[in-house]
From TrEMBL:
The gene is panD. The lineage of its organism: Bacteria, Pseudomonadati, Bacteroidota, Flavobacteriia, Flavobacteriales. Pathway: Cofactor biosynthesis; (R)-pantothenate biosynthesis; beta-alanine from L-aspartate: step 1/1. It comes from the Bacteria. PANTHER family: ASPARTATE 1-DECARBOXYLASE. GO terms for molecular function: aspartate 1-decarboxylase activity. Binds 1 pyruvoyl group covalently per subunit. It comes from Maribacter cobaltidurans. Gene3D superfamilies: 2.40.40.20. Its cofactor is pyruvate. This is Aspartate 1-decarboxylase. GO terms for biological process: alanine biosynthetic process; pantothenate biosynthetic process. The keyword Nuclease does not apply.
Length: 116
């Protein structure tokens, strides 16, 4: 049996931009991506703590050490600059492996979105 578990989480980052005229996705500072073991194009769930919205899209890397968190395309309508988000990825694995798996959890500085 396979189960889906949390693979990684970037906890409490602030939206730095919302670009409605982009083709889609979320742009994440590549340093945050590396710390959370998230790759370009990976599906990510976005949970908006400020308005309760939940959505899924894919990740594109943003400039390193920028703290950038930009929602692009239609997802830009679901956030406002300054909203606090939780970004989550999931992975399928055998249940026995899942019992001992440790996700990558990242807690950036809440003011700058940079790694502490």
């Amino acid at each position: 049996m396979q189960v889906q578990v949390v693979k990684s989480k970037i906890h409490r980052v602030k939206v730095t931009g919302a670009d409605l005229n982009y083709i889609g996705s979320i742009t994440i500072d590549e340093d945050l991506m590396d710390a959370a073991n998230i790759i370009q194009g990976e599906k990510v769930q976005i949970v908006n703590n400020d308005n309760g919205e939940r959505l899924e899209t894919y990740v594109i890397p943003g400039p390193r050490n920028s703290g950038e968190i930009t929602l692009n395309g239609a997802a830009a309508r679901k956030v406002a600059v300054g909203d606090v988000l939780i970004l989550i990825t999931y992975a399928w694995m055998p249940i026995e492996e899942a019992k001992t798996f440790n996700p990558s959890l990242v807690f950036p500085d809440e003011k700058t979105n940079l790694l502490k």
